[in-house]
Amino acid sequence: CLTTLIIMLVGDTYTLINYVSFINYLCYGVTIIGLIVLRWKKPKIFRPIKVNLLIPITYLAFWAFLLIFSLYSEPVVCGVGLIIILTGVPVFFLGVYWRNKPKCVNRLIESVTCWGQKLCFVVYPQGEAAEEE
């Protein structure tokens, strides 16, 4: 979110749309690849919706074309999009992967989470109080 605000202040909206489009293409394709890998490695697990594998494979063909075309036509925009995605790696390691955090780091993460929930009006139910409402 902070990176997006900086880009909005520095660049124009068209460039921001290109960044987001590339990121969306990349995330959708990786999701479909994950679907195919799970269908191949774990074919017996329950799936509420099961489609013929021809559909995701066809989608991946079009996805590869869009991604390669984007990389060819605007490599700088795609590079910045990749950098935007990679800014999440330190956040993952600090927030999820690092298990034995000091109490001050846990308090900071909890306060940032609470602030974000209040900002976006998103609160997960906590115990019996949420069930009574």
From TrEMBL:
Keywords: Membrane, Transmembrane, Transmembrane helix. The chain crosses the membrane at residues 16-39, 51-73, 79-98. One of its GO terms (biological process) is D-serine transmembrane transport. One of its GO terms (molecular function) is neutral L-amino acid transmembrane transporter activity. The keyword Membrane applies. InterPro entries: AminoAcid_Transporter. This is AAA1 protein.
